[in-house]
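User: Here's a structure from my thesis project, written as structure tokens. My advisor, Dr. K., wants to see whether a designed sequence matches the one we expressed. Can you design one independently, without my sequence as a hint?
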């Protein structure tokens, strides 16, 4: 899947391992051994994943080795960072529209649609993340059944919809 997104396949393998490993933090050497990969490749890919915000360095006392993990709240935090990129694209589209202000509307339409779509996402994604955080907070305080809902364990509300 990572290679379909234009990323290195090794990145996906590292993320996959860190999603399921026990303990949740692993050293570069452990990752390389588990994935049967070179330490150089693991080093390069973990550095890029840290930069992307997908994984974090994890300090382990009394060791000089580099340890990595995926934080429990990594996905909403990454989405929050994406909002900055959305804002940058929207602002760039606004600058472009300013340059095209004296041109026919047909010429501006694609850029206007880009700006409007990114403005919409910029507005909606924070609200989605807030709803997610509220849902997660509710589940964290619920011992398995939620009184406001139907008495079924909370994850039933998170199942994907089918077409």
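Assistant: Designed independently from the structure alone:
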């Amino acid at each position: 899947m990572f290679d379909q997104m234009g990323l290195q396949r090794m990145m996906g393998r590292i993320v996959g391992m860190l999603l399921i490993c026990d303990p949740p933090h692993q050293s570069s050497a452990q990752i390389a051994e588990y994935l049967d990969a070179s330490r150089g490749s693991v080093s390069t890919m973990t550095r890029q994943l840290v930069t992307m915000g997908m994984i974090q360095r994890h300090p382990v006392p009394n060791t000089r080795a580099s340890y990595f993990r995926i934080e429990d709240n990594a996905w909403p935090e990454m989405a929050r960072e994406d909002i900055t990129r959305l804002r940058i694209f929207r602002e760039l589209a606004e600058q472009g529209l300013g340059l095209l202000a004296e041109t026919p509307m047909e010429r501006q339409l694609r850029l206007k649609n880009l700006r409007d779509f990114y403005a919409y996402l910029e507005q909606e994604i924070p609200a989605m993340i807030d709803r997610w955080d509220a849902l997660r907070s509710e589940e964290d305080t619920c011992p398995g059944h939620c009184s406001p809902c139907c008495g079924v364990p909370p994850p039933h509300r998170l199942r994907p919809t089918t077409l």
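When you compare it with your expressed construct, this may help: The chain has two domains: 3-69, 74-141.
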